[in-house]
Design a protein that fits this description.
By secondary structure, the chain is α/β, with parallel strands linked by helices. The chain folds into two domains: 119 residues, Class I glutamine amidotransferase (GATase) domain (Rossmann fold); 67 residues, no CATH class. Helices cover 21% and strands 35% of the residues. The longest helix has 13 residues. It is globular. Bound molecules: glutamine. Glutamine (GLN) binds next to helix 2, helix 4 and strand 8. Glutamine binds next to helix 2, helix 4 and strand 8. Belongs to the CobB/CobQ family. GatD subfamily. Pathway: Cell wall biogenesis; peptidoglycan biosynthesis. It comes from Candidatus Hydrogenisulfobacillus filiaventi. Pfam families: GATase_3. This is Lipid II isoglutaminyl synthase (glutamine-hydrolyzing) subunit GatD.
Length: 186
């Protein structure tokens, strides 16, 4: 029998780990173990060579503006290959700062514009004050109950603006993408 094995690429674990985003990787590793699936985590930091096509899953966490600014150019340079792999069906979970940089751009609280990969049609502008606290969103993912529960901590307000980009859920509690349209994630 061939051994089943998943390779997860964890992008920028050193910088993009604002509030224990690494826990997502630990949960996936544990779930794989329960199912007898081998699980390898490949950490990818600024300057590391990495071929997205060799990964089965990609994870990227969030970061403060300073950390996000540190990794932004490196992430953008990986854009063509990563977007090609995503278009080819590679699943990616991106939290907050990682998610923001998959849109067209993220503007820091200090006004710097960090270009994103443009994988989906969205942009992020700084808001008045940080959105911090618990979030509950209702999803169409077909899960029972249909609610996702999490924690948010972001200064940026993300707006989905076209194409088939749809939010992950409708916010029942908290701010979500921008505090206005009730969307959360993508
Ligand atoms: N939680 C985060 O990843 C924060 C992302 C970004 N620096 C913001 O404040 O909006």
């Amino acid at each position: 029998m061939t051994e089943r094995r998943l390779v997860l690429a964890h992008l920028y674990p050193e910088h993009m780990n604002l509030y224990g985003d690494r826990g997502n990787v630990l949960a996936l590793a544990r779930r794989a173990r329960w199912r007898g699936i081998g699980f390898t985590v490949q950490a990818v930091e600024v300057g590391d060579s990495w071929d997205p096509a060799a990964a089965d899953l990609v994870f990227m966490g969030g970061g403060e503006d300073r950390q996000q600014t540190r990794i932004a150019a490196d992430f953008l340079a990986r854009g063509d290959r990563l977007v090609a792999a995503l278009a080819n069906g590679l699943p990616m979970l991106a939290v907050c700062g990682g998610y923001q940089l998959l849109g067209r751009y993220y503007r820091t609280a200090g006004g710097e514009r960090l270009p994103g990969l443009g994988w989906f049609s969205a942009y992020t502008e700084p808001g008045a004050g940080r959105a911090v606290g618990d979030v509950v969103a209702e999803t169409d993912l077909g899960i029972d109950p249909p609610t996702l529960v999490g924690f948010e901590n972001h200064g940026g307000r993300t707006f989905l603006d076209g194409g088939d980009t749809r939010p992950l859920g409708r916010v029942l509690l908290g701010q979500g993408n921008n505090g206005r349209d009730r969307g959360r994630g993508r």
